[in-house]
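Problem: given the chain below (351 residues), write out its structure.
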Amino acid sequence: MISEREASKYPFLKEAASLLEHLEIDIENLTDQRYRPILDRGEERVIQAIRYGVVGGGLKDDLAEFLSFPIAVMLVSMTRDPFLERRYALAEAVRARRLLESEDEGRIAEIARGEFRWRIKVQRREIEDTIYSFELHFVDYLRNSSSFREDKWRLINRILTEGYVLLTKAEAVRLLQVEVEELIRRLSSRRVESNMPEQIMERLGRIKRTLDESRSSIGDSALPSEVIHGAFPPCITHSYRTLTAGGRLSHIERFTLSSFLLNIGMEPERIVQLFVSASDFDEGLTRYQIEHISGLRGSRTRYTPPNCMTMRTHGICHNPDSLCGKVKHPLSYYRRRASELRMSPKARKDR
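Solution.
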């Protein structure tokens, strides 16, 4: 049977589910005072997902940390909110990816085969200074990479050998994140009864309040104080919400959002952290691209977002309002709206 340590790291594994069944913990038992840290941690996992887009470190007790996962899944399910189901699944998947990055190749392949039935081989090769650690059947590769936007993930740009795609360790782990995200999304979308003990319902209430407070400007807590979120033009708001909800942005949408945020005062590192929520997040690539846009790399030129006409041409002009018809650039919109908000005491609450 799986160890408590492994179950705490990867609570979504089938072996972890078997451990949970073996423990035979009833919902009513959770009202006991000794289970309070587990309930607290389960609630914390969901709150972290809402606020930060990733589940962070937890309890030192491995068994308690493991048990907090099904509690968190149950709480998410009880909200019956598809947005939260997606965001929580992504947050747990990002956590799993970070843990998998520290595993050896054998353990990664074991999880891939046993949990997701990947046809994967551990095979070390060095080609043009790149170290490939795995060979993955192209069908499994396509199933998990189809949503990625970067050119490097296109099958035509990969090295194939007898139907298998060569992968670096980081690439294999990134593809596993997709599998984990989908698995947890399915778990959290299962409906459970809403008539639970008071201790559970109190936590559910706090989660719903946190979600409601964050829904209109999800991730707003991470914004520097000088950035006025309420002054974002509709196109930027659309991209921002899509990103922080774990959705996918096109290349030009990413460029537009990043360049916009940089030009209104957000630090590059803050923007990198926002992209953690992206379903195809690659930290190294994201940091390089944002630093290039900011002028810290390459030509040392700080880029600005495309103008409104260009955005319409690319089909990323979303939900234009009355002010959009009076400006020709997202930054012009922001300056005018920010000025209006500063003049309105009531509007300052949106800052």
